[in-house]
């Protein structure tokens, strides 16, 4: 079932290779340039071909995604990365925010990312809802297994940028987010573990009243 | 735009790009000569790619390598499961803190000096005799960095991400954890900007331990929900 057995490494080190350390830092520093949102980076990772994605290590996925983000945002040309054309260096772009060592602590603990939503929440704790059967071509945070499922609103979690638009340069469009709880049986059918419940954090437009 | 500088690294491009290379025999920095020796090693290729990209972005003035080093230092030395263990031990010994954690984990955790990257909202979920909590991110690898550090490889693997929501007991058994058949299992799929910290049950035999001793018992896995806390000290 699923993707097979786990490979649990006892006493796992924080990093397995020196390059992983630099890849982590490079990704975070590049994100701080302010040229793309976290949803755009997730979408960049999702566009790696499934065969390559499933074989790639975590930081390799990050680096492949970073190539895409840099090129798509016009910061780097493909040939500059692969060495097929000369590198060009600008004299400095004021729109870019370059992360300095003194800013790292603040960047890593920048406080909640909630965004004000202009309307009150449509659902309340205890409401019965059904997730919509949405299958967008682009990025979404509604997992496949949780589509067209009936559940209960357990908590209103605040309002956040809507990934389905924020990943595509279509604006933050903040929405209310709800913790929605499903029974294992609702999600997996008859044979499901009877003691299992699963919750997702669902954006309001994923939900309809049930 | 000024064309400048010679190659510092030779990046091996995908095969189809090799014929397009104009400078495929460029030199190496001395300290990178091991790349040649590890020619067949996948990771030496990654090493070259990462170094090349870091050099490119540094020369373009887009990143400061010292900031990268600072980030590495943070996750190697300062931020890791020890932070989460401190939160758990405080919750076990201070009912007021536990109540605050249940209601507003973001603020309660921040009061101990741990703030979440990208400003994610924290939520603490409490195990009990009747209910066991387990955390997964099926869509990517969302994880509470501020309290647990960087996620272990298994947490990010397709195997864990697919099976945690389908059959969590089979995952638990691979971790050597068997729960009573009647214990309810609650799986939290981290699909938005919320990050979850599992507060394990306090081992009953640890009654006379203080907060610091208790913190040493709390493993990373127990705070993800794939482990339990016992009085046997976890391996680091």
From TrEMBL, chain A:
Protein name per UniProt: Nitrile hydratase subunit beta
Span of domain Nitrile hydratase beta subunit-like N-terminal: 1-91
Family annotation (InterPro entries): CN_hydtase_beta-like_N, CN_hydtase_beta_C, CN_hydtase_beta_dom_C, Elect_transpt_acc-like_dom_sf, Nitrile_hydratase_bsu
SUPFAM superfamilies, sorted: Electron transport accessory proteins (SSF50090)
UniProt record similarity statement: Belongs to the nitrile hydratase subunit beta family.
Domain of life: Bacteria
Gene3D superfamilies on file: 2.30.30.50, Nitrile hydratase, beta subunit
EC code: 4.2.1.84
Domain Nitrile hydratase beta subunit: 113-208
Keywords tagged on the record: Lyase
N-terminal signal peptide: none
Catalytic activity: an aliphatic primary amide = an aliphatic nitrile + H2O
Function: NHase catalyzes the hydration of various nitrile compounds to the corresponding amides.
GO MF terms held by the record: nitrile hydratase activity; transition metal ion binding
A Pfam family that the UniProt record links to this protein: NHase_beta_N
Keyword Lyase carried by entry: yes
TrEMBL record, chain B:
EC identifiers of the protein: 4.2.1.84
Ranges of compositional bias, category Basic and acidic residues: 26-42
Segments forming domain Nitrile hydratase alpha/Thiocyanate hydrolase gamma: 45-226
Keywords, ordered alphabetically: Iron, Lyase, Metal-binding
Residues reported in the UniProt entry to bind Fe(3+): 137, 140-142
Enzyme class: lyase
Transmembrane segments: none
Pfam families: NHase_alpha
InterPro entries in UniProt: CN_Hdrase_a/SCN_Hdrase_g_sf, CN_Hdrtase_a/SCN_Hdrlase_g, CN_Hdrtase_asu/SCN_Hdrlase_gsu, Nitrile_hydratase_asu
Region annotation (Disordered) ranges: 19-42
Family to which the UniProt record says this protein belongs: Belongs to the nitrile hydratase subunit alpha family.
Protein's name according to its UniProt entry: nitrile hydratase
